[in-house]
């Protein structure tokens, strides 16, 4: 964490069991107000997810508060620096899921795929027998993705289960049950999507620890299998290797990213996870 930066951005999530997410949300609203942070936190019975920003001291205190919640000592957090506040205000919401897949009763905390660190990930996705799946939405994939990755072409994460069921049937028709490598921006969507894939009978299912953002932060560009930018859900729009600002800007009408200096066809709707 760069403690000299005007703003620190913390992207975080944790699958845990919250019997009373409403009560936890009320406490978080009060703490965030005291600290003057901005961003969004989502709580559900299955855990917490969000991105927040503030001074280094404020973010350190807010993260400590969240780590003290039940089952959150192992909270996954990725930090970045910003010169200006990337969010207009602070929101703490309670929802049915911390990331909406709508696939019924999954158990990402205990039945997700196996984590891989970058070196093992690079080796796995270089294997032509491995199926590499980008679990993000089409507008995110358009900014950049890993070599050989399958793009589901989804508009929303809710579309992923139906897409995968069709894709899985094609694999079975071909007599294949390959290793499956899956990735997303920060890791949370992969927790759920790998749990979904395992529930469909696939055994060798892997995902990238810390998601694309940690990969871009840790892996030197000459060793990287990532191509392009990574879309992020804040005012930075997209980042590249070393989490440096990317070459994309966002349409003011629909929110979709497009390369700076190019024409953009507006789709008239904001991006959805």
| Biggest sheet, spatial arrangement of strands | 4-1-3-2-5
In percent, how helical is the residue content? 25-40%
The overall pLDDT average reads 92
For the report, how would you describe the main beta sheet?
A: 5 strands, mixed
Structural category is alpha/beta
Radius of gyration: 18 Å
String of helices and strands: EHEEHEEHEHEHEEHEHEHEEEEE
Strand content: 25-35%
Tell me, briefly, the overall form.
Answer: globular
Uncertain segments are: none
DSSP, total strands: 16
- Tally of contiguous helical segments: 8
Distance between the termini: 26 Å
Overview of the molecule:
The chain has 273 residues and is of the alpha/beta class. It is 29% helix and 25% strand. It has a five-stranded mixed beta sheet with strand order 4-1-3-2-5. Strands 6-11-10-7-9 form a five-stranded parallel beta sheet. The protein has a two-stranded antiparallel sheet with strand order 8-12. β15 (248-250) and β16 form a beta hairpin. The protein is globular and about 60 Å long.
């Amino acid at each position: 964490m760069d403690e000299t930066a005007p703003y620190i951005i913390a992207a975080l999530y944790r699958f845990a069991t919250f019997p009373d997410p409403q009560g936890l949300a009320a406490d978080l609203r009060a703490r965030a107000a005291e600290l003057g942070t901005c961003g969004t936190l989502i709580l559900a019975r299955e855990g917490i997810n969000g991105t927040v920003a503030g001074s280094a001291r404020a973010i350190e205190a807010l993260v400590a508060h969240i780590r003290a919640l039940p089952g959150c000592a192992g909270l996954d957090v990725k930090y970045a620096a910003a010169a200006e506040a990337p969010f207009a205000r602070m929101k703490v919401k309670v929802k049915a899921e911390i990331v909406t897949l709508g696939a019924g009763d999954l158990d990402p905390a205990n039945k997700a795929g196996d984590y891989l660190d970058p070196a093992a990930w690079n080796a796995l996705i270089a294997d032509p027998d491995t199926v590499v799946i980008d679990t993000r939405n089409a507008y995110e994939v358009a900014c950049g993705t890993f070599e050989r990755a399958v793009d589901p072409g989804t508009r929303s994460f809710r579309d992923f289960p139906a897409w995968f069921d069709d894709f899985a049937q094609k694999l079975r028709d071909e007599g294949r049950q390959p290793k499956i490598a899956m990735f997303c921006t920060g890791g949370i969507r992969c927790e759920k999507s790998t749990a979904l894939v395992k529930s469909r009978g696939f055994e060798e299912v892997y995902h990238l620890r810390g998601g694309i953002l940690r990969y871009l932060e840790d892996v030197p560009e000459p060793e990287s299998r990532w191509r392009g930018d990574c879309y992020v859900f804040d005012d930075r729009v997209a980042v590249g290797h070393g989490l440096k600002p990317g070459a994309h800007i966002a349409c003011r009408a629909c929110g979709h990213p497009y390369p700076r200096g190019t024409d953009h066809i507006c789709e008239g709707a904001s991006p959805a996870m």
